[in-house]
Give the backbone structure.
Amino acid sequence: MSQREVTQRELDELLRSQELPPLPADRVKQIEIALTANLKPVRPLAAESVYLAGFATGFIALCAIGCYFAGQSGWHALNSVQKLCVFAPLGACAALLVFSIVRQMTPAAKHVRSSAVLSAGAFLLLFLMMAAIFRPVHELEFVRTGVMCFRTGMTFAIPAAFLFALLLLRGAALSPALTGATAGGLAGLVGLAVLEIRCPDLNVYHIVAWHVSVTLVCAVGGLVFSVITSQRRATS
């Protein structure tokens, strides 16, 4: 054969043309035992509707609990247009993230990355809406009040992250980084929703720096945590 690149088709034809001797029966049995020695029955996945309901119910319940304990001063400070511009894209983003997570839990599922991209688009729309409808205001205690809001948002986002992680353990996500970022983003939206209902500060700088950042931090945290844990499982 001349010295050139061999195509996959030529390699297949070469292998088919060779007369290989049959393996002894005892050797075939050894290979079968080696391949099946560590096989265990897998736990079947529940229907997607079950996981969709679980994530959606968890999201709504945690938002409701947060609003009950943190208060609703922010909701009363918003006018009707602001409420629509904030909570419509926020709800759409949460719904898309829930759908994306459930898709990622199922191996070989369709629309995994497209739903994640749509979720990111909905979050970008939410960010642009907030930047458009709220105005900058000078605050003397910008950092102090901001840290309080950020802490409050994380107070409800972290339990949400643990809840979503428990639900994810029931599935078989093939992309730890994407799944971790998606689940973290959904948990961060819980904190963001609670803050938008709780906090009456309508300063756009405050909202972007201390409210929206809760979602971003949770998404990055979920990505890092998921990658690290998956690498540890792979090496153990």
Notes: The chain is about 75% helix and 0% strand. The chain has a mean pLDDT of 86.
